[in-house]
Every structure is written in structure tokens, then in C-alpha cells.
Amino acid sequence: MGLGPCHKARSFPSQEQLGDVIFSFCTNPDLLADAQWWACYLTTGKHVGLYWAVGTVLLLLLITAPLVLALGFLGAMAARSSRLIFSLLGRGYIAIVRGVPDIAYFLFFVIALRSEERRVGKECYRV
């Protein structure tokens, strides 16, 4: 059961790409010293998948945190503007950001992400 042609561009390593062992000394774990055993344990497929996931989250954080700070700064500057249109836009932005709890942002993101996955999935598997 394959994932189809749309999922081949992922850079996440599969179990086949990783192989059963990373180091040659990991073939017989009973004979390993502590450091070698930990090296084998921390380089299993599940751990490498965890490392990829944490790296992805940190990369997204490095991209989005400065963007959000810049948007907040622009919204504050617009709210303090002497021009009416900029002031109204800035105050509206601040009212929206203050009025919507964080959980609504998180729920919207998850719902939007799931609907995008379904949309892309339908396009990929259309016969």
C-alpha cells in the first residue's frame, strides 16, 4: 500500500532508507558497552523520526517568530498613525489579536491543515 506520487517529495527518511542499523557495531546489542548501546538506541528509526520532527518545529519557529513580531510592530505603528485609514487598520488588527484566544488560533491551524491534507490527497489520488 503506497502513498502515491504526491508524497515522494518528502525529505523524511523512511525505515528502508535508514536501514536496520546505523553503526556496524549495532548488530549484536548484548556485546555492547554502555556508550555504544546508547549510540545504537538513540539512532533507531523512531528516534531519528523524532529528531526530524523537532528540527522541523524549530525551523518553523525560526521562520514564524520574527514574522509575527514584525506584524505586531507594524500593527502597533499603524494604530499610532495620524492617518485615519492606517489608524483604523491598526486598531482593528489589535482588536482581533486581543479578542481571539490562542486556542482559537491553534484550532484553526489544525482544521486548516487537515482540510488542506484532504484536498491535496484528493488531487493526488484522483483516477
Please give the radius of gyration in angstroms: 23 Å
- Mean residue pLDDT: 75
Cα distance spanning the termini: 16 Å
What gross morphology would you assign?
Answer: elongated
Contiguous uncertain segments of 5+ residues: 4-13
Structural class, judged by helices and strands? Answer: mainly alpha
**Main beta sheet, described?**
none
Strand percent estimate:
under 5%
Helix content: 55-70%
Tell how many strands the DSSP assignment holds: 0
Q: DSSP helix count?
A: 5
In sequence order, what are the helices and strands, one letter per element?
HHHHH
State the oligomer: single chain
Structure description:
The protein has 127 residues and is an all-alpha fold. The chain has five helices and no strands. The chain has helices at residues 15-18, 34-41, 45-79, 84-99, 102-124. Helix 3 crosses helix 4 (84-99).
Can you describe this structure in just a few lines?
It is built from 5 helices and no strands. Helix 3 packs across helix 4. The chain is mostly helical.
Give short descriptive properties of this protein.
mainly alpha; single chain; 5 helices; about 130 residues
What's the layout of helices and strands?
Layout lengths: L14 H4 L15 H8 L3 H35 L4 H16 L2 H23 L3
